[in-house]
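quick q for whoever's on today - can somebody do inverse folding on this one?? i tried earlier but teh output was garbage lol. tokens:
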């Protein structure tokens, strides 16, 4: 890992408990923890198949209109590899995108499945919210995000480089309905042997609170490819969430890919708790 990334990770790790200690007892302080798991599979426009699983721990602290969060995933990725050894068919690219290894030859004989596992890269996000003064007013979020290369690139679970993102989003409620839009720009870390380019992302979403504690959501997203000439990732997601009075929240999601740049299908379940 690069020294600058180690310093940034240490700084962010110390900041979370530091904020809590400095503001202990303050009514504006709120901690959130989460645990999520997801599974995805796809051929990415090839005659091959990749399967991925991740289990992610999250921790964030909110104070006033600021939020600082950390996410640490444990990854499992399955793809084909020559039985005699060699490069894997797929690798994890910038921002967790599954990409075909350029050095992999599709028509090789005696291909076998291989699964690699390991801790993924840490993601740290700082967000500033701008809430409307009225219940049905427009709300804005502006954020900065960094993906720190904690995972080694030797397992093809990381690029070994940091990615830096700027994020913006807006939400407009209409009673029990709400509409939202988001956009992001990522400065992609570039390994010496890759010609990655920076990416844009954007999305639209709608949600309906059909019961006091239940919400149904639908979203569409698009992200340009980090590879020159690559296919943008397009997807449609359906989510359901339920919030308990204790502060516990459960969410399930199903996603369908709309292009060769995205997984064909994926599903996930997350549990979060605010205290």
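ok took a stab at it. sequence:
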């Amino acid at each position: 890992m690069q020294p600058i990334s180690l310093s940034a990770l240490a700084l962010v790790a110390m900041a979370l408990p530091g904020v809590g200690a400095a503001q202990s007892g303050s009514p504006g302080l709120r901690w959130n923890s989460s645990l999520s798991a997801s599974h995805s599979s796809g051929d990415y426009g090839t005659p091959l198949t990749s399967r991925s699983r991740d289990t992610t721990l999250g921790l964030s602290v909110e104070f006033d209109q600021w939020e600082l969060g950390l996410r640490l995933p444990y990854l499992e990725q399955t793809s084909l590899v020559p039985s005699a050894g060699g490069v894997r068919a797929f690798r994890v690219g910038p921002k967790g995108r599954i990409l075909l290894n350029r050095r992999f030859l599709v028509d090789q004989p005696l291909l076998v499945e291989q699964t690699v596992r390991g801790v993924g890269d840490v993601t740290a996000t700082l967000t500033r919210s701008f809430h409307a003064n009225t219940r049905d007013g427009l709300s804005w979020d502006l954020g900065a995000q960094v993906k720190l290369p904690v995972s080694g690139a030797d397992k093809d679970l990381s690029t070994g480089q940091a990615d830096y993102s700027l994020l913006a989003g807006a939400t407009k409620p209409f009673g029990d309905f709400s509409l939202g839009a988001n956009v992001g720009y990522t400065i992609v870390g570039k390994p010496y042997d890759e010609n990655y380019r920076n990416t844009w992302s954007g999305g639209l979403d709608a949600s309906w609170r059909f019961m006091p504690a239940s919400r149904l959501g639908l979203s569409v997203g698009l992200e340009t490819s980090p590879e020159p000439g690559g296919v943008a990732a397009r997807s449609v997601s359906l989510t359901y969430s339920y919030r308990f009075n204790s502060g516990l929240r459960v969410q399930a999601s199903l996603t369908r890919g709309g292009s060769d740049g995205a997984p064909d299908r994926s599903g996930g379940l997350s549990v979060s708790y605010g205290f």
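fwiw Residues 1-25 have pLDDT under 50 and may be disordered. also The radius of gyration is 20 Å. so keep that in mind when u check it
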